[in-house]
Amino acid sequence: MKNRRLSLLAALLAAIVGLSLYLTPKRRAGRYVAAHWETLQADMDAYFLRGEPLRYDAPLETVNSWPGEHPMVEYILPALRPGHYGFYYSPDDVPLALQNAAVPLEETADGWRWQDGDVSGETRRLSPRWFSFTCRS
């Protein structure tokens, strides 16, 4: 009986760890972009090449267009943790900070990080012109 409880507890713990890894912001954003890539890319072509309005579907919290030296369209995913996270499209294929803030990015082993006062974040390339981001305040 004790071995069965330990086995059940170990299986439950493994499931919790696996689920928490599966739900990380980077993976969640990457899965969304991979699953909706054709629609997302068509929307970006419509927006940047033809000037059509931005569209987005229900699982997204919001979509914003941020002008700048390198414009971006930022998709915010519903937060499961404190902070903001999601993905963005950079037509110039340039990594950018949240809301296209004019702050320097420092290259890391798997992406870039930035800081603007008390707010900091990271961005990682998902594919050409598509990036994921996390932001903490």
Could you outline the blueprint of secondary structure elements for this entry?
Blueprint: H1 2-22, H2 25-50, E1 62-66, E2 72-76, E3 84-89, E4 106-108, E5 111-116, E6 119-127, E7 130-136
Antiparallel strand pairs: 1-2, 2-3, 3-7, 4-5, 5-6, 6-7
Task: Walk me through this protein's architecture.
With 137 residues, this protein is an alpha+beta fold. 34% of the residues lie in helices and 30% in strands. The protein has helices at residues 2-22, 25-50; strands at 62-66, 72-76, 84-89, 106-108, 111-116, 119-127, 130-136. Strands 1-2-3-7-6-5-4 form a seven-stranded antiparallel beta sheet. Strand 2 and strand 3 (84-89) form a beta hairpin. The longest helix has 26 residues, at 25-50. The radius of gyration is 18 Å and the shape is globular. Residues 10-23 have low confidence and may be disordered.
- Based on helices, strands and strand pairing, what is the structural class? alpha+beta
Give the fraction of residues assigned to helices: 25-40%
User: How many DSSP E strands?
Assistant: 7
What is the N-to-C succession of helices and strands?
Answer: HHEEEEEEE
Q: How far from one another are the termini?
A: 47 Å
| Structural Rg | 18 Å
* Strand adjacency order, main sheet: 1-2-3-7-6-5-4
Instruction: Show unreliable segments.
Output: 10-23
Can you count the helices? 2
Beta-strand residue percentage: 25-35%
Mean pLDDT: 82
Shape: globular
Characterize the main sheet.
7 strands, antiparallel
